Amino acid sequence: SARVIAIANQKGGVGKTTTAINLSAALALEGYRVLLVDADPQANATTGVGIPLQELSLHLYHCFISEVAPREVVRPTAVDGLDILPSHTDLVGVEVEFVDRAERERLLQRTLNTLRPHYHFIFIDCAPSLGILTINALVAAHSVLIPVQCEYFALEGLGKLLETIRLVRQSLNPDLVIEGLLPTMYDTRLLLSRQVLEELRYHFGDLVFQTVIHRNTRLAEAPSHGKPICLYDKHSRGARDYAAVAREFLARLAQY
Amino acid sequence: SARVIAIANQKGGVGKTTTAINLSAALALEGYRVLLVDADPQANATTGVGIPLQELSLHLYHCFISEVAPREVVRPTAVDGLDILPSHTDLVGVEVEFVDRAERERLLQRTLNTLRPHYHFIFIDCAPSLGILTINALVAAHSVLIPVQCEYFALEGLGKLLETIRLVRQSLNPDLVIEGLLPTMYDTRLLLSRQVLEELRYHFGDLVFQTVIHRNTRLAEAPSHGKPICLYDKHSRGARDYAAVAREFLARLAQY
Ligand SMILES: Nc1ncnc2c1ncn2[C@@H]1O[C@H](COP(=O)(O)OP(=O)(O)OP(=O)(O)O)[C@@H](O)[C@H]1O
Ligand SMILES: Nc1ncnc2c1ncn2[C@@H]1O[C@H](COP(=O)(O)OP(=O)(O)OP(=O)(O)O)[C@@H](O)[C@H]1O
Ligand SMILES: [Mg+2]
Ligand SMILES: [Mg+2]
């Protein structure tokens, strides 16, 4: 039954979606069956793997209001072994709509329970917020992978995120652990990048992945072609970095 | 009485805070009295102008629960003529806490009404979401300035943002206009940057600022020193770009 990993950081634009798409795809290439869940109303992971929003009649919101079995909503992608549970801008209404509903933090957990037997890994792309959708992801997950852009504001928000993870562990999901902190958009030419990475390793030690994702424009180009980097440009720095993250992710799992 | 401008885009990491801090500071340097309102629980604008969160006893949340007069919460910054109404991570509770409260969309408007007589301009830095705090900013504002990172995902979210602005204009704030779309993190060497800028100008014409903010690492370094770019490195590309935005912003105002 699948291990569920939330990819979360309330700081915006740090590489959550880019990591969700490309780590999932890299593991699928290694032969694992992977589900990518888009839990962000922006639906960037959905369009980033080539699914046009206008064509989408079924998505995560329909699972939450129990109108459809989750298996009906899941779709294949261009990568063999990688499926997606798509999002839609309609999801933005969940925050207010479910505020009075009992167990509103477990909507996603219930949705994924019926899907877990069919996959090795399930990755959840989160929105840049600590609202109800991200809480749902933290409740449904075994672990949290935290992309950290190698810039100042990204460091600042980590305290709040780690506190939220601790609170979720105390009250809603006692098994939740941190999968790791993944440095992203690292630019070897910039002192700022090196300083932030040093600070991360100093404060968080082995929680920080050895692999660093370098800034690479091919990663920013790939979504406009609706493809993960491994299909868009498999020889790029970005593709190599995410393949290395996939290998390190598997090696770290083996240590538990 | 001040013109109020919301700086909003639900896409994360597109340069909202960087624009809020540096455009405010550039206008203060020109001799205008400017208030920067931090309406994001991440409080990046607050720390970016050098105010440590641990030292903060009064902030925007206290204005919302009417415990304190807004004038008591406003603080000066290192730039003459620029004040800040600080945020705090406690603000994240507003989303759920005020859900049943009547007129919950007008909390910020009421707070700013007592401050408007003291300034020429009030800029509101928004969180990467279309939740209640951003709605409050759109209700309190005369116009919305939309930073758009010159990358693919940033283009995608514009439709949803423009729709939200239209809905707010219809039901809550009939005078709300778009101040303009400001291209950010433009990298002259990248085809992607040029393509996105072309697309922006094609779809939105004169709504797009002529001035473009180039990618410039000095802009990313400045917040870790708690200074706007005009104090951190006034000769940098970033400082020149935001001075040019300030001039264009004033020239566009004169056209109304
Ligand atoms: N390593 C990288 N090198 C270059 N560009 C990158 C890299 N990683 C991500 N990007 C680009 O940076 C922007 C932000 O990344 P992304 O959208 O994945 O972040 P996010 O954390 O998911 O954002 P949000 O908070 O809005 O959900 C996107 O345009 C993306 O294509
Ligand atoms: N023109 C630029 N050149 C280089 N770096 C920039 C530029 N503008 C912003 N940055 C950096 O990019 C990151 C994202 O910018 P910023 O935090 O201002 O975006 P935001 O839209 O406010 O993010 P959020 O959605 O989290 O509120 C920050 O680390 C910032 O320092
Ligand atoms: Mg994302
Ligand atoms: Mg910001």
Separation of the first and last Cα atoms of chain A: 17 Å
In this entry the ligands are: adenosine-5'-triphosphate, magnesium ion
Structural class of chain A: alpha/beta
Average pLDDT number of chain A: 96
Number of strand elements of chain A: 7
Strand content of chain A is: 5-15%
Quick one: overall form of chain A? Answer: globular
- Oligomeric state as shown: homodimer
Find the biggest chain interface. A-B, 35 and 35 residues
The helix content of chain A is: 40-55%
Radius of gyration of chain A: 17 Å
**Number of H/I helices of chain A:** 13
Quick summary:
2 copies of one chain form a homodimer. Chain A has 256 residues and is of the alpha/beta class.
How is this fold's topology laid out?
The structure is a homodimer of 256-residue chains.
Chain A: E1 3-7, H1 16-29, E2 34-39, H2 44-48, H3 60-64, H4 70-73, E3 75-76, E4 82-85, H5 94-97, H6 107-113, E5 121-126, H7 132-140, E6 143-149, H8 152-156, H9 158-171, E7 177-184, H10 191-204, H11 217-221, H12 229-232, H13 237-254
Parallel strand pairs in A: 1-5, 1-6, 2-4, 2-5, 6-7
Antiparallel strand pairs in A: 3-4
The structure holds adenosine-5'-triphosphate (2 copies) and magnesium ion (2 copies).
One adenosine-5'-triphosphate sits between chains B (12-18, 40, 44, 128, 184-185, 213, 215-217, 219-220, 223) and A (11-13, 128, 151, 153).
What does this structure look like?
- 2 copies of one chain form a homodimer.
- With about 260 residues, the first copy, chain A, is an alpha/beta fold.
- Chain A is about 40% helix and about 15% strand.
- Chain A has 13 helices and 7 strands.
- The first copy, chain A, has helices at about 15-30, 45-50, 60-65, 70-75, 95, 105-115, 130-140, 150-155, 160-170, 190-205, 215-220, 230, 235-255; strands spanning about 5, 35-40, 75, 80-85, 120-125, 145-150, 175-185.
- A 7-stranded mixed beta sheet of chain A has the order 3-4-2-5-1-6-7, with helices on both faces.
- In chain A, strand 3 and strand 4 (about 80-85) form a beta hairpin.
- In chain A, helix 6 crosses helix 7.
- The longest helix of chain A has 18 residues, at about 235-255.
- Chains A and B meet through helix 2, helix 8 and helix 11 of A and helix 2, helix 8 and helix 11 of B.
- One adenosine-5'-triphosphate (ATP) sits at the interface of chains B and A.
